[in-house]
What does this fold into?
Amino acid sequence: MGTYFDVAYMLRSFPTLISYVHITVFITLLSAVVGVLLGSVIAVIRINNVRGFKELLTVFVSFMRGTPFLVQLFLVYFGVPEILSHMGFHVRNVPALLFVLVVFTLHVAAYGSEIMRSSIKAVSAGEKEAAASLGMTTFQSYTRVILPQAFALAIPPLINTVIGVVKGTALIFNVGIVDIMRQADLMGGNSQRSLELFVDVAIIYGILIFLITMIGRAMEAHYVITDQSGKLQSSEE
Amino acid sequence: METTSIIDFTYIVGSFFYISSYVKVTLYLTFVSVAMGALLGLFSCVVQQNHVPLLQSVARLYVLVCRSLPNMVLLYLVYYGLPIAFMAMGDTWGIHVPYEHVPALLVAAVGLTLHTGAYLSEIFRSALQSVPAGQWEAARALGMTWFQMFRRVVLPQAAVFALPLFANQFLSTMKSTSICFVITVVEIFGAAKLFCEDNSQYFEAYIVAAGFYWGMGIFFEFVFSKLEYTMGKFKRGNA
It folds into this structure.
Protein backbone atom coordinates (compact mmCIF):
# COMPACT_ATOMS: atom_id res chain seq x y z
CA MET A 1 0.00 0.00 0.00
CA GLY A 2 1.87 2.99 -1.25
CA THR A 3 -0.38 5.88 -0.44
CA TYR A 4 -2.61 6.25 2.55
CA PHE A 5 -5.22 8.23 0.73
CA ASP A 6 -5.94 7.86 -2.98
CA VAL A 7 -7.36 11.16 -4.21
CA ALA A 8 -7.76 9.92 -7.78
CA TYR A 9 -9.91 7.00 -6.59
CA MET A 10 -11.97 9.38 -4.45
CA LEU A 11 -12.68 11.63 -7.42
CA ARG A 12 -13.39 8.67 -9.70
CA SER A 13 -15.97 7.20 -7.32
CA PHE A 14 -17.80 10.43 -6.66
CA PRO A 15 -20.15 10.29 -9.72
CA THR A 16 -21.14 6.68 -8.94
CA LEU A 17 -21.97 7.53 -5.35
CA ILE A 18 -23.89 10.70 -6.11
CA SER A 19 -26.12 8.77 -8.53
CA TYR A 20 -27.71 7.16 -5.44
CA VAL A 21 -28.61 10.48 -3.87
CA HIS A 22 -32.19 10.45 -5.19
CA ILE A 23 -33.26 7.91 -2.54
CA THR A 24 -32.10 10.20 0.25
CA VAL A 25 -33.77 13.22 -1.34
CA PHE A 26 -37.02 11.34 -1.98
CA ILE A 27 -37.30 10.09 1.61
CA THR A 28 -36.42 13.49 3.04
CA LEU A 29 -38.91 15.46 0.95
CA LEU A 30 -41.82 13.08 1.33
CA SER A 31 -41.41 12.57 5.07
CA ALA A 32 -40.82 16.28 5.65
CA VAL A 33 -44.03 17.33 3.89
CA VAL A 34 -46.29 14.59 5.25
CA GLY A 35 -44.62 14.71 8.65
CA VAL A 36 -45.12 18.45 9.09
CA LEU A 37 -48.79 18.16 8.11
CA LEU A 38 -49.32 15.27 10.51
CA GLY A 39 -47.36 17.10 13.19
CA SER A 40 -49.63 20.13 12.85
CA VAL A 41 -52.68 17.93 13.30
CA ILE A 42 -51.14 16.37 16.42
CA ALA A 43 -50.31 19.82 17.79
CA VAL A 44 -53.86 21.09 17.23
CA ILE A 45 -55.36 17.99 18.87
CA ARG A 46 -53.09 18.33 21.90
CA ILE A 47 -53.74 22.06 22.28
CA ASN A 48 -57.51 21.64 22.05
CA ASN A 49 -57.55 18.80 24.59
CA VAL A 50 -59.43 16.36 22.39
CA ARG A 51 -60.41 13.64 24.89
CA GLY A 52 -58.68 10.31 24.55
CA PHE A 53 -56.53 11.31 21.61
CA LYS A 54 -54.56 13.80 23.66
CA GLU A 55 -53.15 11.29 26.12
CA LEU A 56 -52.41 8.80 23.38
CA LEU A 57 -50.55 11.40 21.33
CA THR A 58 -48.61 12.64 24.34
CA VAL A 59 -47.28 9.12 24.87
CA PHE A 60 -46.58 8.74 21.15
CA VAL A 61 -44.60 11.99 20.98
CA SER A 62 -42.67 11.15 24.13
CA PHE A 63 -41.82 7.71 22.76
CA MET A 64 -40.67 9.00 19.38
CA ARG A 65 -38.56 11.70 20.99
CA GLY A 66 -37.19 9.46 23.72
CA THR A 67 -35.94 6.51 21.69
CA PRO A 68 -33.16 6.39 19.09
CA PHE A 69 -34.20 6.53 15.46
CA LEU A 70 -32.45 3.26 14.73
CA VAL A 71 -34.52 1.43 17.35
CA GLN A 72 -37.72 2.81 15.83
CA LEU A 73 -36.59 1.74 12.38
CA PHE A 74 -35.82 -1.80 13.49
CA LEU A 75 -38.99 -1.99 15.54
CA VAL A 76 -41.10 -1.16 12.51
CA TYR A 77 -39.06 -3.04 9.93
CA PHE A 78 -38.57 -6.30 11.85
CA GLY A 79 -41.14 -6.07 14.61
CA VAL A 80 -44.32 -5.04 12.82
CA PRO A 81 -44.22 -7.81 10.18
CA GLU A 82 -43.71 -10.32 12.99
CA ILE A 83 -46.72 -8.99 14.89
CA LEU A 84 -48.79 -8.95 11.72
CA SER A 85 -47.83 -12.51 10.86
CA HIS A 86 -48.99 -13.61 14.33
CA MET A 87 -52.28 -11.96 13.47
CA GLY A 88 -52.41 -13.80 10.17
CA PHE A 89 -51.21 -11.13 7.71
CA HIS A 90 -48.07 -11.71 5.73
CA VAL A 91 -46.29 -8.60 4.60
CA ARG A 92 -42.94 -10.01 3.56
CA ASN A 93 -43.22 -8.64 0.04
CA VAL A 94 -43.84 -5.07 1.12
CA PRO A 95 -40.79 -3.03 0.04
CA ALA A 96 -38.41 -1.86 2.77
CA LEU A 97 -38.72 1.68 1.51
CA LEU A 98 -42.32 1.84 2.67
CA PHE A 99 -41.36 0.99 6.25
CA VAL A 100 -38.59 3.56 6.13
CA LEU A 101 -40.99 6.23 4.89
CA VAL A 102 -43.49 5.43 7.63
CA VAL A 103 -40.84 5.65 10.36
CA PHE A 104 -39.42 8.91 9.04
CA THR A 105 -42.86 10.46 8.66
CA LEU A 106 -43.82 9.53 12.22
CA HIS A 107 -40.46 10.78 13.43
CA VAL A 108 -40.90 14.17 11.75
CA ALA A 109 -44.51 14.30 12.93
CA ALA A 110 -43.46 13.83 16.57
CA TYR A 111 -40.69 16.41 16.50
CA GLY A 112 -42.71 18.73 14.25
CA SER A 113 -45.72 18.60 16.55
CA GLU A 114 -43.69 19.96 19.45
CA ILE A 115 -42.40 22.78 17.25
CA MET A 116 -45.85 23.57 15.89
CA ARG A 117 -47.34 23.43 19.39
CA SER A 118 -45.04 26.15 20.66
CA SER A 119 -45.49 28.29 17.56
CA ILE A 120 -49.29 27.95 17.62
CA LYS A 121 -49.14 29.19 21.20
CA ALA A 122 -46.90 32.04 20.05
CA VAL A 123 -49.58 33.36 17.65
CA SER A 124 -51.13 36.21 19.60
CA ALA A 125 -54.49 35.62 21.25
CA GLY A 126 -55.91 38.66 19.45
CA GLU A 127 -55.58 36.86 16.14
CA LYS A 128 -57.63 33.94 17.41
CA GLU A 129 -60.27 36.24 18.90
CA ALA A 130 -60.44 38.30 15.72
CA ALA A 131 -61.00 35.14 13.69
CA ALA A 132 -63.72 34.01 16.10
CA SER A 133 -65.40 37.40 16.03
CA LEU A 134 -65.62 37.19 12.25
CA GLY A 135 -67.73 34.08 12.75
CA MET A 136 -65.13 31.60 11.58
CA THR A 137 -65.45 28.05 12.79
CA THR A 138 -62.54 26.56 14.73
CA PHE A 139 -61.46 24.72 11.60
CA GLN A 140 -61.54 27.89 9.52
CA SER A 141 -59.67 29.96 12.07
CA TYR A 142 -56.96 27.32 12.22
CA THR A 143 -56.53 26.83 8.49
CA ARG A 144 -56.94 30.49 7.51
CA VAL A 145 -55.46 32.47 10.39
CA ILE A 146 -53.51 30.53 12.98
CA LEU A 147 -51.66 27.77 11.16
CA PRO A 148 -50.21 29.96 8.37
CA GLN A 149 -48.70 32.29 10.94
CA ALA A 150 -47.56 29.46 13.18
CA PHE A 151 -45.91 27.80 10.20
CA ALA A 152 -44.01 30.97 9.34
CA LEU A 153 -42.70 31.15 12.90
CA ALA A 154 -41.78 27.49 12.87
CA ILE A 155 -39.68 27.48 9.70
CA PRO A 156 -36.20 27.69 11.31
CA PRO A 157 -36.74 24.83 13.80
CA LEU A 158 -38.59 22.78 11.18
CA ILE A 159 -35.64 23.14 8.82
CA ASN A 160 -33.44 21.88 11.64
CA THR A 161 -35.67 18.83 11.92
CA VAL A 162 -35.45 18.24 8.17
CA ILE A 163 -31.65 18.42 8.40
CA GLY A 164 -31.96 15.84 11.15
CA VAL A 165 -33.90 13.64 8.72
CA VAL A 166 -31.17 13.92 6.10
CA LYS A 167 -28.67 12.81 8.71
CA GLY A 168 -31.03 10.04 9.77
CA THR A 169 -31.13 8.65 6.23
CA ALA A 170 -27.50 7.62 6.74
CA LEU A 171 -28.91 4.81 8.87
CA ILE A 172 -31.40 3.24 6.48
CA PHE A 173 -28.80 1.05 4.80
CA ASN A 174 -29.18 -1.13 7.90
CA VAL A 175 -32.53 -2.39 6.64
CA GLY A 176 -31.20 -3.27 3.22
CA ILE A 177 -31.91 -0.16 1.19
CA VAL A 178 -29.16 0.63 -1.30
CA ASP A 179 -28.44 4.31 -0.82
CA ILE A 180 -25.18 6.29 -0.79
CA MET A 181 -24.00 4.62 2.41
CA ARG A 182 -24.65 1.06 1.24
CA GLN A 183 -23.07 1.76 -2.13
CA ALA A 184 -19.95 3.16 -0.43
CA ASP A 185 -19.89 0.09 1.79
CA LEU A 186 -20.14 -2.27 -1.21
CA MET A 187 -17.54 -0.44 -3.26
CA GLY A 188 -15.23 -0.32 -0.24
CA GLY A 189 -15.52 -4.08 0.08
CA ASN A 190 -14.20 -4.46 -3.46
CA SER A 191 -11.48 -1.84 -3.48
CA GLN A 192 -10.41 -1.98 0.19
CA ARG A 193 -10.38 1.81 0.11
CA SER A 194 -13.36 2.69 2.28
CA LEU A 195 -11.96 5.93 3.69
CA GLU A 196 -11.93 7.64 0.28
CA LEU A 197 -15.51 6.55 -0.37
CA PHE A 198 -16.79 7.78 2.97
CA VAL A 199 -15.09 11.12 2.41
CA ASP A 200 -17.14 11.28 -0.79
CA VAL A 201 -20.25 10.43 1.20
CA ALA A 202 -19.41 13.16 3.70
CA ILE A 203 -19.10 15.70 0.87
CA ILE A 204 -22.47 14.64 -0.57
CA TYR A 205 -24.19 15.04 2.81
CA GLY A 206 -22.46 18.39 3.25
CA ILE A 207 -23.85 19.57 -0.08
CA LEU A 208 -27.37 18.31 0.74
CA ILE A 209 -27.42 20.05 4.11
CA PHE A 210 -26.08 23.25 2.59
CA LEU A 211 -28.87 23.19 -0.01
CA ILE A 212 -31.55 22.62 2.64
CA THR A 213 -30.17 25.50 4.69
CA MET A 214 -30.41 27.73 1.61
CA ILE A 215 -34.00 26.61 0.94
CA GLY A 216 -34.80 27.35 4.58
CA ARG A 217 -33.38 30.86 4.35
CA ALA A 218 -35.37 31.50 1.17
CA MET A 219 -38.57 30.27 2.84
CA GLU A 220 -37.93 32.43 5.88
CA ALA A 221 -37.50 35.45 3.63
CA HIS A 222 -40.65 34.56 1.71
CA TYR A 223 -42.98 34.13 4.68
CA VAL A 224 -42.11 37.17 6.74
CA ILE A 225 -44.17 38.25 9.71
CA THR A 226 -43.34 41.63 11.12
CA ASP A 227 -42.98 42.24 14.84
CA GLN A 228 -45.83 42.35 17.33
CA SER A 229 -46.53 46.04 16.66
CA GLY A 230 -49.88 45.04 15.20
CA LYS A 231 -48.88 45.29 11.58
CA LEU A 232 -48.74 41.86 10.13
CA GLN A 233 -47.59 41.24 6.65
CA SER A 234 -47.22 38.16 4.61
CA SER A 235 -45.56 38.40 1.24
CA GLU A 236 -47.59 35.57 -0.24
CA GLU A 237 -49.93 37.87 -2.13
CA MET B 1 -43.96 -21.32 16.17
CA GLU B 2 -46.41 -22.71 18.63
CA THR B 3 -47.17 -19.44 20.38
CA THR B 4 -50.64 -18.14 19.86
CA SER B 5 -50.42 -14.78 21.61
CA ILE B 6 -49.39 -11.76 19.56
CA ILE B 7 -46.72 -10.59 21.98
CA ASP B 8 -44.85 -13.28 23.86
CA PHE B 9 -44.17 -12.14 27.41
CA THR B 10 -41.57 -14.78 28.19
CA TYR B 11 -39.43 -13.19 25.47
CA ILE B 12 -40.08 -9.73 26.88
CA VAL B 13 -38.73 -10.87 30.23
CA GLY B 14 -35.88 -12.81 28.61
CA SER B 15 -34.75 -9.91 26.49
CA PHE B 16 -35.09 -7.55 29.44
CA PHE B 17 -32.56 -9.51 31.45
CA TYR B 18 -30.32 -10.11 28.45
CA ILE B 19 -30.25 -6.44 27.47
CA SER B 20 -29.98 -5.04 31.00
CA SER B 21 -26.43 -6.37 31.34
CA TYR B 22 -25.39 -4.16 28.40
CA VAL B 23 -26.83 -0.92 29.79
CA LYS B 24 -23.45 -0.14 31.29
CA VAL B 25 -21.84 -0.08 27.83
CA THR B 26 -24.33 2.54 26.65
CA LEU B 27 -23.84 4.59 29.82
CA TYR B 28 -20.07 4.29 29.56
CA LEU B 29 -20.06 5.43 25.93
CA THR B 30 -22.42 8.30 26.74
CA PHE B 31 -20.46 9.59 29.72
CA VAL B 32 -17.07 9.24 28.07
CA SER B 33 -18.09 10.94 24.86
CA VAL B 34 -19.99 13.74 26.59
CA ALA B 35 -17.10 14.38 29.01
CA MET B 36 -14.44 14.33 26.29
CA GLY B 37 -16.74 16.23 23.98
CA ALA B 38 -17.24 18.90 26.63
CA LEU B 39 -13.47 19.35 26.96
CA LEU B 40 -13.06 19.46 23.18
CA GLY B 41 -16.00 21.83 22.83
CA LEU B 42 -14.75 24.12 25.59
CA PHE B 43 -11.31 24.24 24.00
CA SER B 44 -12.70 24.94 20.53
CA CYS B 45 -15.04 27.59 21.94
CA VAL B 46 -12.38 29.41 24.00
CA VAL B 47 -9.97 29.33 21.07
CA GLN B 48 -12.60 30.95 18.85
CA GLN B 49 -13.62 33.46 21.50
CA ASN B 50 -10.05 34.67 22.08
CA HIS B 51 -9.16 34.68 18.36
CA VAL B 52 -6.06 32.49 18.70
CA PRO B 53 -4.47 32.55 15.23
CA LEU B 54 -4.60 29.33 13.20
CA LEU B 55 -6.25 27.40 16.04
CA GLN B 56 -9.45 29.40 15.68
CA SER B 57 -9.65 28.54 11.97
CA VAL B 58 -9.09 24.88 12.76
CA ALA B 59 -11.79 25.03 15.42
CA ARG B 60 -14.24 26.72 13.03
CA LEU B 61 -13.61 24.13 10.36
CA TYR B 62 -14.01 21.33 12.88
CA VAL B 63 -17.34 22.66 14.12
CA LEU B 64 -18.61 23.22 10.58
CA VAL B 65 -17.62 19.77 9.32
CA CYS B 66 -18.67 17.72 12.31
CA ARG B 67 -22.00 19.46 12.64
CA SER B 68 -22.90 18.90 9.01
CA LEU B 69 -22.08 15.19 8.90
CA PRO B 70 -24.49 12.46 9.92
CA ASN B 71 -22.86 10.78 12.89
CA MET B 72 -23.03 7.46 11.08
CA VAL B 73 -20.75 8.90 8.38
CA LEU B 74 -18.49 10.41 11.03
CA LEU B 75 -18.27 7.07 12.77
CA TYR B 76 -17.34 5.30 9.53
CA LEU B 77 -14.72 7.95 8.77
CA VAL B 78 -13.13 7.34 12.17
CA TYR B 79 -13.53 3.58 11.79
CA TYR B 80 -11.67 3.49 8.50
CA GLY B 81 -9.50 6.56 9.06
CA LEU B 82 -8.07 5.88 12.52
CA PRO B 83 -6.11 2.73 11.57
CA ILE B 84 -4.74 4.51 8.49
CA ALA B 85 -3.74 7.50 10.62
CA PHE B 86 -2.00 5.18 13.09
CA MET B 87 -0.29 3.39 10.21
CA ALA B 88 0.91 6.70 8.76
CA MET B 89 2.18 7.73 12.18
CA GLY B 90 4.10 4.50 12.48
CA ASP B 91 5.67 4.91 9.05
CA THR B 92 6.64 8.57 9.26
CA TRP B 93 7.65 9.04 12.90
CA GLY B 94 8.32 5.50 13.89
CA ILE B 95 5.68 5.61 16.63
CA HIS B 96 4.20 2.18 16.51
CA VAL B 97 0.56 1.92 17.47
CA PRO B 98 -1.00 -1.52 17.20
CA TYR B 99 -3.46 -0.33 14.56
CA GLU B 100 -4.52 -3.86 13.70
CA HIS B 101 -6.21 -4.11 17.09
CA VAL B 102 -7.95 -0.78 17.61
CA PRO B 103 -10.87 -1.77 19.84
CA ALA B 104 -14.29 -0.93 18.42
CA LEU B 105 -15.26 0.74 21.68
CA LEU B 106 -12.43 3.26 21.25
CA VAL B 107 -13.49 4.01 17.67
CA ALA B 108 -17.06 4.54 18.84
CA ALA B 109 -15.96 6.82 21.67
CA VAL B 110 -13.77 8.90 19.34
CA GLY B 111 -16.54 9.22 16.73
CA LEU B 112 -19.16 10.24 19.26
CA THR B 113 -16.74 12.63 21.00
CA LEU B 114 -16.04 14.45 17.74
CA HIS B 115 -19.77 14.71 17.07
CA THR B 116 -20.71 15.84 20.59
CA GLY B 117 -17.76 18.22 20.85
CA ALA B 118 -18.81 20.15 17.77
CA TYR B 119 -22.36 20.66 19.05
CA LEU B 120 -21.18 21.51 22.58
CA SER B 121 -18.73 24.05 21.17
CA GLU B 122 -21.64 25.97 19.67
CA ILE B 123 -23.66 25.64 22.88
CA PHE B 124 -20.80 27.00 24.98
CA ARG B 125 -20.22 29.82 22.52
CA SER B 126 -23.82 30.97 22.71
CA ALA B 127 -23.72 30.64 26.50
CA LEU B 128 -20.65 32.84 26.76
CA GLN B 129 -22.24 35.37 24.45
CA SER B 130 -25.35 35.45 26.61
CA VAL B 131 -23.32 37.01 29.44
CA PRO B 132 -23.39 40.77 28.81
CA ALA B 133 -20.09 42.60 28.34
CA GLY B 134 -20.90 44.75 31.38
CA GLN B 135 -20.35 41.72 33.60
CA TRP B 136 -16.79 41.29 32.32
CA GLU B 137 -16.17 45.01 32.68
CA ALA B 138 -17.53 45.15 36.23
CA ALA B 139 -15.37 42.18 37.20
CA ARG B 140 -12.33 43.80 35.65
CA ALA B 141 -13.08 47.07 37.46
CA LEU B 142 -12.92 45.11 40.72
CA GLY B 143 -9.38 44.11 39.81
CA MET B 144 -10.04 40.42 39.11
CA THR B 145 -7.64 38.41 36.96
CA TRP B 146 -9.02 36.75 33.80
CA PHE B 147 -9.31 33.44 35.54
CA GLN B 148 -11.15 34.98 38.50
CA MET B 149 -13.53 36.85 36.19
CA PHE B 150 -14.26 33.67 34.29
CA ARG B 151 -14.73 31.42 37.28
CA ARG B 152 -16.55 33.75 39.68
CA VAL B 153 -18.63 35.91 37.38
CA VAL B 154 -19.03 34.57 33.89
CA LEU B 155 -19.06 30.80 34.33
CA PRO B 156 -21.99 30.58 36.78
CA GLN B 157 -24.15 32.76 34.54
CA ALA B 158 -23.10 31.00 31.35
CA ALA B 159 -23.65 27.59 32.93
CA VAL B 160 -27.26 28.42 33.78
CA PHE B 161 -27.86 29.38 30.17
CA ALA B 162 -26.06 26.32 28.81
CA LEU B 163 -27.53 23.68 31.11
CA PRO B 164 -30.83 22.96 29.28
CA LEU B 165 -28.99 22.85 25.94
CA PHE B 166 -26.33 20.65 27.45
CA ALA B 167 -29.01 18.32 28.78
CA ASN B 168 -30.51 18.07 25.30
CA GLN B 169 -27.14 17.24 23.81
CA PHE B 170 -26.51 14.65 26.50
CA LEU B 171 -29.79 12.89 25.70
CA SER B 172 -29.13 13.10 21.97
CA THR B 173 -25.67 11.56 22.40
CA MET B 174 -27.19 8.82 24.53
CA LYS B 175 -29.56 7.97 21.70
CA SER B 176 -26.74 8.18 19.16
CA THR B 177 -24.84 5.42 20.91
CA SER B 178 -27.28 3.02 19.26
CA ILE B 179 -25.48 3.43 15.93
CA CYS B 180 -22.30 1.94 17.37
CA PHE B 181 -23.59 -1.58 16.82
CA VAL B 182 -22.71 -1.08 13.13
CA ILE B 183 -19.02 -1.17 14.07
CA THR B 184 -19.57 -4.24 16.30
CA VAL B 185 -19.90 -2.53 19.71
CA VAL B 186 -22.52 -4.39 21.72
CA GLU B 187 -24.61 -1.95 23.75
CA ILE B 188 -28.37 -1.86 24.39
CA PHE B 189 -29.33 -1.92 20.75
CA GLY B 190 -26.61 -4.36 19.76
CA ALA B 191 -27.75 -6.67 22.55
CA ALA B 192 -31.34 -6.49 21.28
CA LYS B 193 -30.11 -7.41 17.82
CA LEU B 194 -28.10 -10.36 19.13
CA PHE B 195 -31.09 -11.51 21.16
CA CYS B 196 -33.23 -11.47 18.01
CA GLU B 197 -30.72 -13.50 16.08
CA ASP B 198 -30.98 -16.25 18.66
CA ASN B 199 -34.74 -16.19 19.10
CA SER B 200 -36.19 -14.33 16.09
CA GLN B 201 -38.63 -12.48 18.33
CA TYR B 202 -37.95 -9.08 16.85
CA PHE B 203 -40.78 -7.01 18.20
CA GLU B 204 -40.29 -8.07 21.81
CA ALA B 205 -36.55 -7.40 21.83
CA TYR B 206 -36.73 -4.02 20.12
CA ILE B 207 -39.63 -2.78 22.21
CA VAL B 208 -37.62 -3.65 25.31
CA ALA B 209 -34.58 -1.84 23.90
CA ALA B 210 -36.78 1.17 23.14
CA GLY B 211 -38.11 1.00 26.69
CA PHE B 212 -34.58 1.12 28.09
CA TYR B 213 -33.71 4.23 26.12
CA TRP B 214 -37.02 5.83 26.97
CA GLY B 215 -36.61 5.12 30.68
CA MET B 216 -33.03 6.33 30.75
CA GLY B 217 -34.05 9.48 28.90
CA ILE B 218 -36.80 10.22 31.42
CA PHE B 219 -34.41 9.54 34.29
CA PHE B 220 -31.70 11.87 33.03
CA GLU B 221 -34.27 14.53 32.15
CA PHE B 222 -35.35 14.39 35.80
CA VAL B 223 -31.76 14.65 37.02
CA PHE B 224 -31.06 17.64 34.80
CA SER B 225 -34.25 19.41 35.82
CA LYS B 226 -33.24 19.03 39.49
CA LEU B 227 -29.82 20.43 38.60
CA GLU B 228 -31.41 23.33 36.77
CA TYR B 229 -33.52 24.08 39.80
CA THR B 230 -30.46 24.04 42.06
CA MET B 231 -28.51 26.30 39.77
CA GLY B 232 -31.43 28.66 39.35
CA LYS B 233 -29.99 31.03 41.93
CA PHE B 234 -27.39 32.11 39.37
CA LYS B 235 -30.07 32.98 36.87
CA ARG B 236 -30.00 36.61 35.86
CA GLY B 237 -32.81 38.59 37.44
CA ASN B 238 -33.22 36.13 40.29
CA ALA B 239 -30.98 38.28 42.48
User: Anything to note?
Assistant: The mean pLDDT of chain B is 86. Chain B has nine helices and no strands. The longest helix of chain B spans residues 146-176.
